[in-house]
Design a protein that fits this description.
With about 350 residues, this protein is mainly alpha-helical. The protein has 2 domains: about 230 residues, 3-Layer(aba) Sandwich (Rossmann fold); about 90 residues, Tyrosyl-Transfer RNA Synthetase, CATH 1.10.240. About 50% of the residues lie in helices and about 5% in strands. The strands form 3 sheets. Strands 1-2-3 form a 3-stranded parallel sheet. A two-stranded parallel sheet has the order 4-7. Strands 5-6 form a two-stranded antiparallel ribbon. It starts with 7 loop residues before the first strand and ends in a 6-residue tail after the last helix. The structure holds tryptophanyl-5'AMP. Tryptophanyl-5'AMP (TYM) binds next to strand 1, helix 1 and helix 7. Tryptophanyl-5'AMP binds next to strand 1, helix 1 and helix 7.
Length: about 350
C-alpha cells in the first residue's frame, strides 16, 4: 500500500430507545458518506454487554438498530452493515489493544466515570476497557474516518493514541515485515511508516450534541429515566408532538441572531434540531422564526419532526416485521467485514511475533 485508502467506520449500540440524538448526530451523517467512500456501519453488540443487559432482548435491539440504519437510507449493497459479535477479529484486536493502552489513559475517560458513577469498584472490567474495543472496531479495518456525535470525541482521541503507540512500539517489525504505509503527516512523534492510520473524527453540523427536552444542560440519552426527555425513533406522531409541546423552554421569543441563543440552552437545542431536520443552519431557522414565541415555533417544529420521522418509523416497523431479511443483510455484511479484518489481524499477529503453527 502506498497510502491509507479512505474508509469510514462507525457504530451504534443496541441498547434500546434509539433517539433523535442518535439519528441526527450519527445515523443521518452516515448516509451521504456511502456514496463518497467505502463505508462500514456496525451494530456494536459486544459494547452493549459492558453494562447490565437482558439476553432475551439483545437480538431484538440488534435488529432494531439495523432497521434504523436501513430506514434512514443506508444501502446494504453500498455500505457494509453487520453486528460486531459476528466478526471475531474485533474481540481479538481489542485484547491486543488492552495491552497497548495504559490504565491511566482509560481512567481519564469521562464516559467511564459517568457510567460507572460512584460505585466504580463494581463496574465491569469490560466497561473500563470499552474504548480499547472501540479502537479495535475502527482499526480492524484501518478506517480513516469516523462520523460520530460530540460525546465520542474523547474515545476517538484515545483511538489515535493507541494507533500511535502501536505504530511506535512495533515500528521496527512493521518495517522489517514490509507492512508499513508511508506516514501521510510526518512528525517527530511517529516513525516514517505506520501500520494503523491516525483516524479522523467527523463531528459536523448543527446536531452534534442534541440535549434533553427536559433539561438543556443534559445530553439526550437512551438511559434518561424520563421518556419525555427524548424523541425515540419509533415514537408515534402524537408522542412526538406531545414531547415537543412539553419541552422545557423560557418565556422569551426566539432571537433573530445566533448570539441571542448563547445563554438559552433549551431554545438553542430546539433551534438546532429544526436546523438539522431541514439540513440548514441555526441562522437559517432564526431568519424565519426570529421574534416569534414558542407557541408558534413549537407546532412548526412538531410538524417538521413528524414529517421526517414518521415515514422512518413506518419503514422500521415494516422491516422489523420481517426479521429474516434483516438477518440476511447482517450475515452478508459480516462476511464482507470479516474478509477485510481477517488479513489485518494476520498482520497484527505477525507484527506482535505470535508463533503461527496453523
Ligand atoms: P451510542 O450507541 O451511545 O451512540 C451512537 C451514536 O449516536 C451519537 N449520539 C448523539 N449525537 C448527538 N446528540 C446526542 N444526544 C447523542 N447521543 C448519542 C453518538 O455520539 C454516537 O455517534 N461508543 C459508541 C459506539 C461505538 C462506536 C465504535 C462509534 C462502538 N464502536 C466505533 C464509532 C466507531 C457509542 O456508545 O455510541
Amino acid at each position: 500500500m502506498t497510502s491509507f485508502s479512505p474508509r469510514v467506520f462507525s457504530g451504534v449500540q443496541p441498547t434500546g430507545n434509539l433517539h433523535l440524538g442518535n439519528y441526527l448526530g450519527a445515523i443521518a451523517q452516515f448516509v451521504p458518506l456511502q456514496d463518497r467512500m467505502p463505508t462500514i456501519y456496525c451494530v456494536v453488540d459486544l459494547h452493549a454487554v459492558t453494562a447490565k443487559f437482558e439476553p432475551e432482548h439483545l437480538a431484538r435491539t440488534t435488529r432494531e438498530v439495523t432497521a434504523a440504519y436501513l430506514a434512514a437510507g443506508i444501502d446494504p449493497k453500498k455500505a457494509i452493515v453487520f453486528n460486531q459479535s459476528q466478526v471475531k477479529e474485533h474481540a481479538e484486536l481489542a485484547w491486543i489493544f488492552n495491552c497497548v493502552a495504559r490504565m491511566g489513559w482509560l481512567s481519564r475517560m469521562t464516559q467511564f466515570k459517568e457510567k460507572a458513577g460512584k460505585n466504580r469498584e463494581n463496574a465491569s472490567v469490560g466497561l473500563f476497557a470499552y474504548p480499547s474495543l472501540m479502537a479495535a472496531d475502527i482499526l480492524a479495518y484501518r478506517a480513516t474516518h469516523v462520523p460520530v456525535g460530540d460525546d465520542q470525541k474523547q474515545h476517538l482521541e484515545l483511538t489515535r493514541d493507541i494507533a500511535q503507540k502501536f505504530n511506535n512500539d512495533f515500528a521496527e517489525r512493521i518495517a522489517q515485515l514490509g507492512l508499513g504505509v508511508p506516514n501521510p503527516t510526518p512528525s517527530p512523534e511517529l516513525p516514517d511508516e505506520l501500520y494503523f492510520p491516525l483516524t479522523e473524527p467527523i463531528i459536523a453540523g448543527p446536531a452534534t450534541r442534541i440535549m434533553s427536552l427536559r433539561d438543556g444542560t443534559k445530553k439526550m440519552s437512551k438511559s434518561d429515566p424520563s421518556d419525555l426527555s427524548r424523541i425515540n425513533l419509533r415514537d408515534s406522531a402524537e408522542e412526538i408532538a406531545k414531547k415537543i409541546r412539553k419541552a422545557k423552554t423560557d418565556p422569551e421569543p426566539l432571537p433573530s441572531e445566533e448570539e441571542g441563543l448563547a445563554e438559552r440552552a433549551e431554545a438553542a437545542n430546539l433551534v438546532g434540531i429544526y436546523a438539522a431536520l431541514t439540513g440548514g443552519t441555526k441562522a437559517d431557522v432564526l431568519r424565519d422564526y426570529g421574534g416569534q414565541p414558542f407557541s408558534v415555533f413549537k407546532p412548526a417544529l412538531a410538524d417538521l419532526a413528524v414529517s421526517k420521522l414518521a415515514p422512518m418509523a413506518d419503514e422500521m416497523n415494516r422491516l422489523l416485521a420481517d426479521p429474516a431479511t434483516i438477518d440476511a443483510v447482517l450475515k452478508d455484511g459480516a462476511e464482507r467485514a470479516g474478509a477485510i479484518a481477517e488479513p489485518v489481524l494476520k498482520d497484527v499477529r505477525a507484527i506482535c511475533g505470535f508463533l503461527d503453527v496453523r
